[in-house]
Specification:
The structure holds two protein chains of two kinds.
Chain A lengths: L4 H28 L7 H19 L2 H25 L4 H24 L22 H4 L3 H11 L4 H19 L1 H11 L1 H6 L4 H27 L11 H11 L4 H21 L3 E2 L3 E2 L2 H5 L1 H13 L18
Antiparallel strand pairs in A: 1-2
Helix pairs in contact in A: 1-6, 1-7, 1-10, 1-11, 1-12, 2-3, 2-4, 2-10, 2-11, 3-4, 3-10, 7-8, 7-12, 8-10, 11-12, 11-14
Chain B lengths: L8 E10 L2 E11 L4 E5 L6 H8 L7 E6 L2 E3 L4 H6 L2 E4 L11 H6 L8 H19 L14 H14 L4 E5 L7 H16 L3 E6 L2 H7 L2 E6 L2 E7 L5 H9 L17 E11 L5 E11 L2 E6 L6 H8 L7 E6 L2 E2 L5 H6 L2 E4 L3 H5 L6 H6 L9 E2 L2 E2 L1 H15 L15 H13 L5 E5 L7 H16 L3 E5 L3 H7 L2 E6 L2 E6 L5 H8 L5
Parallel strand pairs in B: 3-8, 3-9, 6-7, 7-8, 13-20, 13-21, 16-19, 19-20
Antiparallel strand pairs in B: 1-2, 1-4, 4-5, 9-10, 11-12, 11-14, 14-15, 17-18, 21-22
Helix pairs in contact in B: 13-14, 14-15
Classes of the chains: A mainly alpha, B alpha/beta.
């Protein structure tokens, strides 16, 4: 195989990892606060739809982003209302959000635009487009480092860089701020937080809002940056892969990023292998490669990562004794 | 030492109902500043509810609270903290994977960023350590600390928040005797430095050992307050249950017969592969109670698990009526006449979400008495449960009630009734009265002695030395996985205590 391909695989690894990173960080906030968030997928889809619609109507990707975030936060609050205020089952609430997202986006898309659930294609100005770093084009042909700079470091949209900033930012919030300390505490022992005179409910709501914002970025990335419009079910299970990455990373920000990059890499590798033959084996059906992320998920979650200790109070609504 | 005239706490007419349950009735209580005030009562007497009201967890339906002579409304824990009240809960309110320091500052971080607060807290912990002898490594992770130290962190948390009044809810339930003594020394120091301490307990010995004043609660009412020096264990016990109680079990001499359980060179390892029971041999005969004394964690639990078929022994033999049974599972052992009252009723004895009648047959549900083919005969189960409720005075007498809604003592009676009513030849009992009130303790003790007198073999494991001494006919002392000696029940507490600490044999 031609060796230059590694660089382009890495480039598309970055592109494919971004929605995973945003979404897994979103899950990190809610789950560390003790609220299971299986509705990440649905939130991503809802915000992808909202962002595409808003960007199409206004012609501004930023308003698209704002709409994506707003809708995703609203859905998060619905999840919060069911799971925190009314102490409903968090898994059921999340599954409901996923179904709602899949159905409602397609129906609304069809009703408003009559394009089979799609939104109309976005013009380049209504999208987040690639930012080309200084000298990127000049360095493109000057050896491996130049190519790496041009294809992997440079040439992504603003949300990509935002995702990589969100990783250290999340770490800082969780481990260096009062909010983060309380958030981690409430996911382990809400009683300790309550007896310290802090509202468990308000704290968990704030955590779900953080998740809403991050999911909003993920959804917007899908429809307004990576593609030029919304397509039915375009999140395609990424919310669940992000959830797997979150567990794989044991609910820690930097490992979350690495896990997402790994999943992104497998995805990029599968795309790259399409129609190519493997030395000694010949052509392999592309489905084999496409299945890799899911196989990896199963293998990892089956215990190859050691003991993944979830936040202790995860999934349990907080009720004062009696 | 001399209490100042303004009381630290005055409760006036506190009243609280939970639905039909009247948890606190018109409570009046005055606690002198700089004293240790005990509040004693059976499980369900309303002690914890009263303290939760004082700490802002619940709101009283009526009544008022004065702290240091000032009317104070405590609508949440934050208000209690600012009024100078700190609480050490029965179940620690600690985040287990946090460090000591993180737990201490939670809620009083001193700013939106942690940096400065952490530095300040580190210095404050040093000061508290110097003032009160509360040593603990601020960077240790809670779950790696023994319970005694975890409790110390709870005390530090309260002091760090500036608590002048410290409430401790059943603080010794999880402690070894040595840890409990240490705690009492710390409480003494705190009082001498002017702190006011409220100690909630149902252990009379602790009240006598440490308090200055004691108030007794019974069925939601405050029935009496006494100076500790002017009262006796007998008087307090009577006030608690409302009638005279026997603190000693009345029993005749034992008449041991044939060997029922025989343990030979038994070695048991725990889940981590650590040897917890090391080459232990002993016999239990029909018609005797053999008590195993020891500080929790010296292999008693693993020994019980091996005998009752929950854990496979690493080597050695277990014989019931001469038949080797090592490695048999619990169902086969039960068929051979083994009854088991497990150490932890919540973990092993009961399914708390089941209704009483279901727990009442649990483990014996395959018995043809309770079933028709593959189906359970619910009427038979319930009739059986009703009979046990009647015989064991389980309250409330409702076999359809969820087991979680019974008090600790009554839950334990459900387990005791289930196991004893099967009329086992060998009864293995772990911590039969842990977290159980005096009335139920007395009842359970009498049932165990009745088993002995009916020529059953009883093996009793308990960390309560009083219980071991009053029930056993022979006492084996366990330390670090070995049986370090056999004593008679009239052996002094001190001698046994030294053996339990591994100092004397």
């Amino acid at each position: 195989m031609e060796n230059l391909d590694l660089i382009s695989i890495l480039g598309s690894t970055i592109r494919l990892s971004i929605p995973l990173i945003f979404t897994a960080l979103a899950g990190l906030f809610t789950e560390r606060a003790g609220v299971f968030d299986i509705g990440l997928e649905g939130k991503m889809l809802f915000s992808a739809f909202a962002a595409a619609v808003a960007a199409f109507m206004t012609g501004s990707p930023w308003i698209g982003l704002l709409a994506g975030i707003t809708v995703s936060v609203l859905i998060s609050l619905i999840h919060g209302f069911a799971a925190i205020t009314n102490r409903g089952n968090q898994i059921v609430s999340g599954v409901a959000i996923n179904f709602l997202a899949s159905g409602l986006t397609a129906v609304l898309g069809q009703a408003w635009f009559s394009q089979g659930g799609r939104t109309p294609p976005l013009a380049a100005t209504a999208r987040f487009t690639e930012i080309v770093f200084p000298y990127a084009n000049e360095l493109r042909d000057s050896g491996i480092l130049g190519r790496f700079y041009a294809n992997v470091i440079s040439g992504h949209n603003i949300l990509t860089y935002l995702a990589f900033l969100a990783v250290p930012a999340s770490w800082w919030v969780l481990y260096r701020t009062r909010f983060g300390l309380r958030l981690r505490a409430v996911g382990e022992n809400p009683g300790a937080v309550d007896t310290a005179g802090i509202s468990v409910t308000f704290l968990r709501y704030r955590a779900t809002i953080c998740a809403g914002i991050l999911c909003g970025c993920a959804g917007t990335y899908l429809s307004v940056a990576q593609s030029a419009g919304f397509v039915k079910d375009m999140s395609a299970g990424k919310g669940f892969i992000a959830l797997a990455a979150l567990i794989f990373a044991k609910w820690r920000p930097v490992p979350v990023m690495l896990a997402c990059l790994l999943f992104g890499f497998l995805d990029a590798f599968a795309n790259f292998m399409q129609g190519k033959s493997v030395p000694g084996i010949g052509e392999v059906p592309v489905q084999i490669f496409q299945a890799l992320p899911y196989v990896l998920t199963c293998v990892l979650l089956a215990g190859f990562i050691g003991v993944a200790r979830p936040p202790k109070a995860g999934g349990v609504p907080y009720v004062k004794e009696r | 030492m001399s209490p100042s005239p303004t009381p630290a706490i005055e409760l006036n007419g506190i009243d609280k109902k939970f639905g039909a349950v009247h948890a606190n009735r018109n409570i009046h209580l005055t606690v002198a500043k700089g004293s240790i005030h005990g509040i004693i009562g059976e499980n369900g007497a309303g002690k914890s509810t009263l303290m939760s009201i004082l700490y802002g967890f619940y709101h009283a339906d009526a009544g008022s609270i004065r702290i240091n002579g000032k009317d104070t409304v405590i609508h949440d824990s934050q208000a209690a903290i600012s009024a100078g009240i700190g609480m050490v809960h029965q179940h620690f309110m600690l985040v287990e994977n946090f460090s000591v320091l993180e737990n201490v500052i939670l809620g009083v971080e001193g700013g939106a960023l942690l940096g400065k607060g952490v530095t300040g807290a580190r210095a404050a912990l040093k000061r508290l350590e110097a003032d009160y002898g509360l040593e603990v490594d601020p960077d240790a992770i809670i779950e790696e600390l023994p319970v005694g130290l975890q409790q110390r962190v709870e005390i530090l948390k309260a002091l760090y928040r500036g608590a002048e009044i410290l409430i401790l809810d059943e603080p010794t339930g999880v402690l070894t005797p040595a840890e409990a003594d240490h705690l009492f020394r710390i409480l003494g120091v705190l009082r001498d430095q002017g702190k006011t301490i409220l100690l909630i307990t149902h252990k009379l010995r602790e009240i006598m050992a440490i308090t200055d004043t004691v108030s007794v609660m019974r069925r939601g009412e405050m029935v009496a307050t006494r100076r500790t020096a002017e009262t006796t264990v007998e008087e307090l016990a009577e006030l608690m249950v409302g009638r005279r109680v026997l603190l000693r079990v009345d029993k005749g001499p034992a008449a041991p017969k044939e060997v029922v359980l025989s343990v030979r060179n038994l070695t048991v390892k725990d889940g981590r592969g650590v040897t917890m029971v090391d080459n232990v041999s002993f016999d239990v005969r029909a018609g005797e109670v053999v008590g195993i004394a020891g500080v929790a964690g010296n292999g008693q639990s693993e020994l019980l698990e091996a005998i009752t078929g929950i854990r496979k022994p690493a080597s050695g033999e277990i014989l019931i009526h001469g038949q080797p049974v090592a490695g048999f599972d619990a169902a086969r052992l039960r068929a051979l006449g083994l009854g088991h009252i497990p150490e932890d009723r919540h973990h092993m004895g009961l399914v708390l979400n089941f209704e009483e009648s279901e727990n009442s047959v649990l483990g014996y549900h395959r018995d043809e008495r309770y079933g028709r083919g593959p189906l359970l005969d619910l009427d038979a189960c319930r009739d059986d449960a009703k009979a046990k409720i009647e015989k064991y005075d389980i309250r409330p007498p409702n076999c359809r009630l969820k087991t979680a809604n019974f008090s600790g003592g009554n839950q334990q009676k459900i387990v005791v009734a289930r196991e004893i009513e099967r009329d086992p030849a060998l009864l293995v009992v772990g911590q039969p009265t842990r977290g159980v009130d005096i009335g139920a303790i007395e009842f359970i003790h009498r049932r165990l002695i009745a088993m002995r007198d009916a020529d059953k073999a009883v093996l009793l494991v308990s960390v309560e030395l009083d219980e071991i001494r009053s029930l056993s006919d022979r006492i084996l002392v366990m330390f670090a996985g070995h049986i370090v000696g056999e004593k008679t029940p009239d052996t002094g507490e001190q001698t046994l205590g030294l053996m339990m600490a591994g100092i004397a044999a």
